[in-house]
Write the structure tokens for this entry.
Amino acid sequence: QVQLVESGGGLVQPGGSLRLSCVASGSISSIRGMGWYRQAPGKERELVADITPGGTTNYADSVKGRFTISRDNAKNTVYLQMNSLRPEDTAMYSCNAYIWSLSVYVWKVYWGQGTQVTVSS
């Protein structure tokens, strides 16, 4: 089995920073893309940022210049550094990863349960 677990969410004031982490564990052979998504109440889930194994990144326009995605391939971990947070960044943040599992022998997208980020004064 493969599991993704996020951490680092919480309550922060506008202009503050948070760093999210997502660790993939289990019967993993290889990981391709990893990414962060968010979903605010009443809105559709949207891509925040994603990153390839080689470090190529992609960001939503709304977070460019404020958020930075990175990964540690040796630790099967992806990070999201969020600076200059705004109330509109409030959402449930979830990570995903495209993984070849040793138990199912196919490439498959796995998701974490999510971590809540609330930006409020």
Observations:
- The CA atoms of residues 32 and 53 lie 6 Å apart.
